[in-house]
Amino acid sequence: MDPYAALRYKEFNIFLLVRFAMVFAWSMQFIVIEWQVYSLTKDPLSLGIIGLMEVIPAVSMALFAGHIVDQREKRNLLVTCIAGFSVISLGLFLLSWPGLEDSWSSKTILYSIYALVFLGGFVRSFLGPTIFSLIALIVPKKIYPNAATWSSSTWQLASVLGPALAGFSISWIGVHWSMCLIFGFSLMALLFLFQIPKKPILNPKIGEPVFQSLKDGLKFVFGSKAIFGALTLDMIAVLFGGAVALLPVYAQDILHVGSEGFGILRAAPAVGASITMLGSTRFPLHKNAGKKLLLAVFAFGVCIIVFGLSELFWLSVVALFLSGAVDGVSMIIRQTILQLKTPDNMRGRVASVNSMFVGSSNELGAFESGLAAKLLGTVTAVVFGGCMTLLTAGATAVISPTFRKLDLQKDIDEHEKED
C-alpha cells in the first residue's frame, strides 16, 4: 500500500493543516489552564475539576451532537465549532490579563476559568464527530486506513508541540500571552478551513426523529463486537491510566523541574505516539489487530506504573515516551476499526459514542486521578491506575477470544473491491 496515498489529495492536506492548528491550540490551552489553576490553588483536586468541567457537557451532549452532525453539512458545522473555540480562547486570554488579580479574587478567576472550560465541553461534543465525518467525504474508502493514520499522526504531532510550547511559553512570555498565541492558532484553523468546499450530506434519513436516530446509533455500536470492544478497552485504560493530569504535581512538587520540565513531561507521550504513527504509515497494524491492541494496552499500564514510582526526571520522561508509543498503536487500530466498520450515514453518531467512551474518559480520568491523589497520595494514585489498566487488558484477553482474534485485512480488501 502507498504510504502517502491520502496525501495525494489536496483537500486532505488542507484538512490536516486545520486539524493540526486546532489540536495544537486546544492541547496548548489545556496545559496553560492546568498550570494557571494549580498555581492559583496548589490543590491536585482542582486539576481533576478542570477535566470534570469539560466532560459533563461533552458527555451529556455527545449523542445529540452525533445526530446533528449526521443531519448537517460538515464543513460549515466545523467552522461553527472552531469559531466557538476561538471565543472561549479569547475569554481565557482576557481572564489572564496582568493585574486582574488585583481587582478579582483568585476564587472568582478560578470559577470563571471553570465556566469557560465547561462551555468548551459543548464545543468538543460537536468537534470530534464533525472531523471524523469530514474525513470520509474527502478521501475514497480504499484509503480510509491510510487517511486515519495520517490524521491521527497529525493529531499527535500537534499534541507534541502544543504542550511543549505551552511549558516554554509560560516561562518565556507568561500565561497571558500564551493564551493570545492560542487564540491566534484557532483563527489560523478557520482560515485554512474556508479553503475546503461544502460537502454533500449522505444521510438518507434527513429529518429523522432524534430519539429514533439515537436509538439506531447506539444499537449499531453495541451490536458491533469490534467497535464496542475497542472503545470499552481504551476507555477503561485511559480512565485509570490518566497520569498526565497529575503532571503539574510531579513537575512542581516531586521532580522539581519547573514549567520547562513540565512541558517536556507533557510532550513526551505525544512524541512517542507520533513516532509510532509515522512508522505505521509504512508498517500497517491491521493484521492481528486484536492481539496488538491488547498488548499495547498492557504495555501502557506497565509504563504508567514505572512513571508513578520514578523520582528521576529522565526515567519519568522515558516512561511517558514509551506510554505514548504503545498508546499510538491503540489509537491507530481503534481509528481504523471505526473508519472501516462505520456506514457513512452513521459516522456522526458512532464518533459521538467514541467521544463518550474514549475522548471523555480523558477528562474523567483526570478527575479520577485528581480525586485519587487527594485521597491516596499522588504516587499511589498513579500506580493504582496502571495496575487497573493491566487487569483490564488481561481480563479482556481472557473473556473475549473473538476480539483477541480480530483481523482487519478482510475489511480493507472489501473496500478496495468497492472502489
Question: Would you write up a description of this structure?
Answer:
The chain is an all-alpha fold and 419 residues long. The chain has two domains: 1-207, Up-down Bundle (Growth Hormone, Chain: A); 209-418, Growth Hormone, Chain: A (Up-down Bundle). It contains 17 helices and no strands. The protein has helices spanning 10-41, 44-71, 74-95, 100-103, 106-136, 144-172, 174-193, 210-223, 225-240, 247-254, 258-280, 289-309, 313-341, 347-376, 378-399, 401-404, 409-418. It is globular. The mean pLDDT is 82.
Count up the domains: 2
Q: What is the level-2 CATH architecture name of the largest domain?
A: Up-down Bundle
CATH T-level fold name of the largest domain: Growth Hormone, Chain: A
Name given to the CATH homologous superfamily of the largest domain: MFS general substrate transporter like domains
Instruction: Report mean pLDDT, rounded to a whole number.
Output: 82
Helix content: over 70%
Structural class: mainly alpha
CATH class categorisation of the largest domain: Mainly Alpha
Q: Work out the number of β strands.
A: 0
Q: Tell me the series of helices and strands, N- to C-terminal.
A: HHHHHHHHHHHHHHHHH
Query: How many strands, which pairing sense, and closed or not: the largest β-sheet?
Result: none
Strand fraction: under 5%
Question: Tally the helices: what do you get?
Answer: 17
